[in-house]
Write a structure and sequence with these properties.
52% helix; globular; mainly alpha; 459 residues; single chain; Glycosyltransferase
Length: 459
């Protein structure tokens, strides 16, 4: 009892160096991705308040584009952040496989990236004809609906890029996601892994030979996930394929694109669905080994630690929109740097731990739904908000309800606090309290990295 009392006084066990249940947090994050599944759910579905949804996606084009993941608190399948989330998850399963194994989540983790890869294969089924699908559902129409995905009856248009309306960023993200997933799956299903790599090659060729921003070709995506440049996704795709295949063509392409875009001198603080610079640096530092890639990797991580403002309680504050997402991605990026043998590995791991601990409760509250002390109860998420089980109605009354969500969206990382650590558990504040698959992807991979570092006595 005395130890418990001391712990409660000291910010509820949030002291520097305190250990959180990283394995438990990772397990819950895996559940969050399962709650975001679209299409016909598997027989072993573990989310009792979710069922089959949007099983006819793609029918407007005569295709089966069902599956994949709903983006956030809505039900659109946005291709660019979806591909990015699968990249981060697959990379975590490659580098931090022992972390997943220690958490007892390796099989579930592999199932999560396979669920994503299956959808990308469907979206790429016409790549031979120069067409790649990148979105199901109209964002404006979808956001006018509040309720369960199983009961949503709106038309869901299927949007695509093509050789005449290119999308190198979308295709590059998909190519990298499949290439890294093929490595993560590996010999556990060699035929499937080979299939993913074959399509990854096709997607990369499409991206390389048909240059352009997907959001110019798919204006329906621009208001939600506008791409500011396609070159980093294209370069990252080349690097990911170099990692997966060890082929000189991809190494040469990656190095050439890297030099042409001046990435050696770009110290970018973002590492997210539209910014792959740290990922490029890390992979090329590993695959090519040149000092410039290692120097650039270190420069970005050093900037996160020393050159970006922090909140009074220590959160690295990169952007107000999804502040925790950006901090989690920085944590993941520094763990990757540490495990590449770049910079001060001990400092990088300590930074990653401090940022993830902030999310898990070091300030006295958790920012992960269903985890720790005083977790969020009203995340901005349609199906989780439903106050009563189906078939009871779920609508805007549930959105406006002051009550906690009717369903616990276990593992979801909310957007997070402002620059002064202020946070309100308000369903209506989608800047600070929405959830998204790209928010959880870096967070989950960082958790796996911390678990693995702990096993190796590196923390």
């Amino acid at each position: 009892m005395k130890a418990l009392a001391i712990c409660l006084v000291a910010f509820l066990c949030g002291l520097v160096g305190a250990q959180y249940d990283y394995s438990g947090a990772l397990s819950k994050s895996v559940l969050f991705f399962e709650a975001q599944r679209s299409g016909k759910l598997p027989a072993n579905n573990r989310i009792p308040w979710r069922g089959d949804a949007f099983v006819v996606d793609g029918s407007d084009k005569g295709l089966d584009l069902s599956g994949g993941y709903h983006d956030a608190g809505d039900h659109v399948k946005f291709g660019l952040p979806f591909g990015h989330a699968m990249i981060f998850l697959a990379w975590g399963l490659i580098d931090y496989r022992a972390g997943y194994q220690a958490a007892g989540e390796l099989d579930n983790g592999l199932a999560s990236i396979r669920w994503g890869a299956d959808y990308i294969l469907k979206a790429s089924s016409q790549i031979g004809q120069g067409i790649l699908y990148g979105q199901n559902g109209n964002g404006d129409a979808d956001h006018s609906y509040w309720g369960r995905p199983e009961e949503q009856t709106q038309n869901r248009p299927s949007y695509f890029v093509s050789t005449t309306a290119p999308g190198s960023d979308l295709a590059g993200n998909y190519a990298a996601a499949l290439a890294l997933t093929s490595v993560a799956i590996g010999g556990s299903d060699a035929a499937y892994s080979a299939q993913l790599l074959t399509v990854a090659r096709q997607l990369y060729s499409f991206a390389f030979n048909n240059r352009g921003k997907y959001s110019n070709s798919m204006p329906e995506a621009a208001a939600f996930y506008n791409s500011y440049d396609y070159n980093d996704e294209l370069t990252f795709a080349a690097a990911a394929l170099a990692l997966a295949t060890d082929e000189q063509t991809y190494k040469t392409d990656a190095a050439t694109l890297y030099a042409a875009n001046g990435y050696a001198n770009l110290v970018q603080e973002f590492f997210d669905w539209d910014n792959k610079h740290q990922g490029i640096n890390v992979i090329l530092a590993r695959v090519l080994g040149d000092a410039q890639y290692k120097t650039a990797t270190q420069a970005i991580c050093d900037k996160w630690i020393n050159g970006v403002p922090r909140t009074p309680k220590g959160l690295v504050f990169i952007n107000a929109w999804g502040s925790l997402r950006h901090a989690a991605n920085a944590a993941f990026g520094c763990l990757l740097a540490a495990d590449t043998g770049v910079g001060n590995a001990a400092s990088y791991r300590a930074f990653a731990k401090q940022q993830i601990d902030y999310m898990l409760g070091s300030t006295g509250r958790s920012y992960v739904v269903g985890f720790g002390v005083n977790p969020p109860q009203r995340p901005h998420h349609r199906s989780a908000s439903c106050q009563n089980p189906a078939p009871a109605p779920c609508d805007w009354n549930d959105y406006n309800s002051p009550n906690p969500n009717g369903n616990v969206l276990n593992g979801a990382l909310v957007g997070g606090p402002d620059q002064n650590d202020n946070y309100s558990d308000d369903r209506g504040n989608f800047q600070t309290n929405e959830v998204a698959i790209d928010y959880n992807a870096g967070f989950q991979s960082a958790l796996a990295g911390l678990i693995q570092a702990g096993l190796l006595n590196q923390l």
